[in-house]
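Extended Data, panel c. Modelled sequence:
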Amino acid sequence: MTRTQAEKLLTKAKSILDDWWNQVSSSAATGELEDAIEDTELREAVQRSLRSKTKTYRYVLPTQILAKLAKHTLDCRSLQVADRRRGAFDARSLAQTIIVPFDAANNRVLGGSPEPYVNNPLRVPSISQQYSKPQKDKQGWADLCLVLDTVQRKNDKQFTETVFRQVLVEIYRSLAEASVSYSVPIRVSLESTLSTISGFLTEKSGGDREQAVAGALFCIIGERFGLYKTVRRAPINASDKASGLVADLECVSELSTVELAVEVKDREITVAHIEGKLRNARSMKVSEILFVAQKGLAPTEAQEIPPRVESEFASGQNVYILDLATLAKVTLSLTGEAWRPRFLAEVGKQLDQYNSDIRHRRAWAKLLAQL
């Protein structure tokens, strides 16, 4: 392969990786991140390889299969140009130029190795069982051989694409499990805190970001003023019925009584929202319910909602409606300066504890780093 051909290979590989990673990320954002490979044995071999105890092995499948997609005539088992088999290529160059930066940009999900292909496990001509003897991790090597042998034997573009998608799906899943470091400042102004919240809520998240912020605010309120002992919450995709909660958040006393139910909406509040939640509150004997609306009241129902709220008071239900920005400003003003860093840290804790998508966790970490 000439230098020009090698450069074209790298350029095409980078484009393929970017496009496919965007597709996988988009699928994850809509809750449709599914396995691509039906064969259980092959799929599990991919899964184990991406989570291998041998860090170097984690880089092999994304590198080798990406090369195959970029140039179908390549042998995806090959590691070195000196390999005698037809379609041999320099896998180290592609790993170093494409996969290592990808890994660094994604929270070092593969392990953060700066030069994975110079390590001893890959100082062989190809990924083959004939080179298993020097490998300490025999099962890990066998998994790589199984996947790459299957891809090369079928030598079918569509099948290669299917395996590569599974590889990226597993990487995304690993990324979602990865820890994110939140750099909370020692001191932060009210204006900067509110601006950070506003920036965080700009991107749509299906209510995930809103619940994290609201959850953090009510944790701070409970701790600062002693109004309740704890705040209960469920993951964003859990229904109230499945979680057993009255609403998205429950502020609970030491006697396990729900003092306040909080429903967090990233949409405009409607009469239907209120009535549906009130039925649930009544059945669980909760009289205080707060709607935190990111976008306020639905304009078409803005005249109907206040009388509806007033009528509920007569029947023993107290309904309150606030937008999230107002709630945040009032809470963080009353709690004072010392509690603002604690609030910022609590948002990160909420995102981690309730398994928020990695995009939301990284976005919060990025905003904190700018303070």
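The beta strands are 230-233, 249-252, 258-265, 288-293, 318-323. This feature is highlighted in the accompanying rendering.
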